[in-house]
Amino acid sequence: MATTVNIVCKRTVVSTKAIEPGKYLPLSVLDRFMEKNHIRMVYYYQTSGELELGKLTKKLRETLSEMLTHFPIVTGRLLRDDMGHWKIKCNDAGVRTLEAKAKGSVEEWLRNVDREKELELVYWEDMLEKPYYWSTFYVQLTEFEEGGLAIGLSCTHLLADPICATRFMKAWADISLGNKITSPPIFHPLPPQRSQNKKPNNNSNPYMGLISHYKSIIEKPIFVKEAKYTTISMGFSHHMVQACMSMAQFIGSSSPSPSPSPSPTPFDALAGLFWVTLSKIKGIKNGFVDMSICLDVRKILGLDQGFFGNSMLYNKVHLEEHFNLDINENKFPQATRAIRDVVAKIDNDEIMDLIEWLENNDVNSSKMMNVHDLIITSLEDVDPCLAMFQDMFKPIRFSCYIEPVFGEGHVLILPNPLDEGPLGRVVMVTLEEEDAIKLCEDDFILLFSPTILMKCVK
Q1: Closest by Cα among 369, 26, 389, 433 to 189
Q2: What is the pLDDT of residues 31-70, one digit of tens each?
Q3: H or E element: which one contains 101?
Q4: What CATH number does the domain located at 196-394+403-454 have?
Q5: Could you tell me if 69 and 17 are in contact, meaning their C-beta atoms sit under 8 angstroms apart?
Q6: Domain 8-176: which topology?
Q7: Mean pLDDT over residues 358-376, rounded?
Q8: Do 142 and 47 form a contact (C-beta atoms < 8 A)?
Q9: Residue 2's Cα: distance from chain center in Å?
Q10: Which of 10, 116, 268, 407 is the most buried (most CB within 10 A)?
Q11: Residue 393: exposed, middle, or buried by beta-carbon count in 10 A (0-12, 13-18, 19+)?
Q12: Cross-sheet strand order for the sheet of 137-144
């Protein structure tokens, strides 16, 4: 059955309460660094096929308007301040909202979905020449004629990271259920710069790991190769992730290392698995493709749960000199250990040194963070199941994209809402088409029996 998406209408939804005039919200240096990226998410829900089309979207539109009262940064518009930095004018210009219909049922759609089809469910427009008239957030409500709903949310990464975007959806669900928002958004700056005597050991020399990585990105020329990218999505069950963690740990314990090897987390093990596999697919026989990880650092910085802004950082993963890459079976545990070491070493002082370095050097670069390396992003704190709307079950599928993708590709690792165990994960991989096809057929990946949630069209 055809599954063409037809846009029924496009409108602007504003908040139900007026915002005080003259209010502005500044954006942080971490916000400004993500200007050229945007986020696209799709939530899928089962509904009764007997439900009158349009009735559900009307109700969701009304609760969206009520919820937007709590998010003035979302309904505002971009302006430059005297230093040329972005800020938001809270003028309640609203959120662009599209209502659409699709043939068939949501279950039929999900059996045949690919990247191109899925992106029809989440509208996006790039920044206009005059950004003051540009909506920074878009919502698309798509009802399936034979039952089911897809909610697409897209936004500029300049204002929010994926954690913020999912909490925006959670707040909308709270309002739809007639409840108060459990974690109201908080629009405060990142922690302030420390005075010299409050720095550890009064050391004026900053931690250079993160700074060096960001400096290299700023200084490195951008070379975007012409290539067609596609996205595949794989579901790994609780037991298979457990097996992946055990394999990394078991072999890793025999690798030459002066210290004991702690158990890897699900992110460590899956990131290691895909780093090794994609390095092989890309033809690297003795070593690994250049790779950076992206992590949420809210907890490390002590930010409130409702903090609304960018708090995800990128860091390069390097192999230690003692790693032996001549033994092929050691590559997986060694890759996993290298990832775990980078994750463990990021602390508050190193992050604050990076923030202060970016601010003191007035970095207003907005360079692409994903032009050169393979990027592996941890979305462990993204919980799509929290977006449970009235008269509907929790989402039956969730997808997330951080666009555009260049370089060696992008791997997103996030919880699996369909799995019964806590270790279940979904891995969304955006690669050049040729590499994506090889990934789906790779024996090492197939060893962990992934469920193909989104296929690669050959």
Answers
A1: 26
A2: 999 999 999 999 999 987 666 777 888 989 999 999 999 9
A3: strand 95-102
A4: 3.30.559.10
A5: yes
A6: Chloramphenicol Acetyltransferase (3.30.559)
A7: 78
A8: no
A9: 30
A10: 268
A11: exposed
A12: 5-13, 95-102, 137-144, 149-156, 38-45, 397-403
